[in-house]
Fold these 2 entries.
Entry 1:
Amino acid sequence: ESNNGWKGGKSKDKKGYIRVRCEGHPNAYSCGEYVHEHRLIMERKIGRFLHRYEVVHHINEIKHDNRIENLMLFPNNKEHLKFHAGAIK
């Protein structure tokens, strides 16, 4: 935190998603330290940790737009893919 490059524990990954340093989170990745911000926001909304197989979709497809009204939860990737194929509206 005392480093001049410290950005509050947030950074963007290679795909454009915002990740947040969140040590101890049960679904953290990268040495158990980071969680994607959109997943944390959805967890806050539903009041529980997400299962690893649940998918949080960005409605406007802007990967760093993590407003709750831009997020949609799918029970698994199969349902998420159906949505992209136009089977779910």
Note: The radius of gyration is 14 Å.
Entry 2:
Amino acid sequence: RAAPPARARLARLSARPARAVRGLALLAGVGALVLLPLAAGPFLAHVLVLVGLYMLMGLGLNLEVGYAGLLDLGFVAFFAIGAYTVGLLTSTGGLAVLDLSFWVAVPIAVAIALAAGVILGIPVLRIRGDYLAIATLGFGEIIRLLVLSDFLRPWLGGSQGVLGIKKPFFLGIELATPEQIFYLTLAASGLVAFVAARLRDSRLGRAWMALREDEDVAEAMGIDLVNVKLLAYGLGASFAGVSGAIFAVMVGSVFPHSFQLLISINVLALIIVGGMGSTPGVMVGALFLVGLPELLREFADFRFLIYGAALVLMMQLRPEGLWPAAAIRRELHAPEELDPVQRAI
């Protein structure tokens, strides 16, 4: 109720005071996030880390689904690729490939996840709609079965996974506790959110949105669909690779059973709940879909009942999402804004 008057007062300010108010609000929000895990304890910090990991994946999948309209149900594969790459490069166990630090392994994991996204995009360039979802679902299952296979067991560990993953060090401090991992996740989420916001407002972002609305018209307007689709898959996969890298060092081990299809479905759901094509919506959706069930653990089996009822109510009351993009909001609510004569026409 207080938001519209506050926005109206902010709009009446001149440019300089308005920037100052926005800057102070941003600093206050960042300060609250920095102090939150210290005040709340390790359990809430662990929940916030999980929220941040899903937020990173959601920002990546939002490039594909929210901006470009490319439905991907195998997105967990890129999360697994990032986790396994960092695990193998930083592990001290028998499967160690190179004894690298976390900060050196992360760019390698991002590059490999990006390459995997491009490889996925090549065979599905001409597939649309439900068929695209099935094809990407198959890619996710292929990655899961490969890491479980006996053929790759000497290199990936099979069902036993990769153990002994080292914790990252920053300025001589080991980032081992949930509070410390939270700050790493917060920094990564902020950087990825900034990149996603810049991509949205770039020429590439406009091309993705044109692709989402109509592929044939976008191609007729001179958009190279091949490059645009491959960039969506590759950049989205790279964001998931960052999330997988942080997950590997947080847990200290990587197992194939940690990368189930349900993760892809949850990431897609948080985008829909938060708001398709909206970067703030991804953050709100991650808090709602990941943070809420974890905070309701004291209700045992009833927590999913409460969680499901909240989802149903939210879809009934706000089908556009909790924080939708302006274009999506206009599409869903344009008929309501017309007078009765215009609606009849």
Note: The beta strands are 169-170, 173-174.
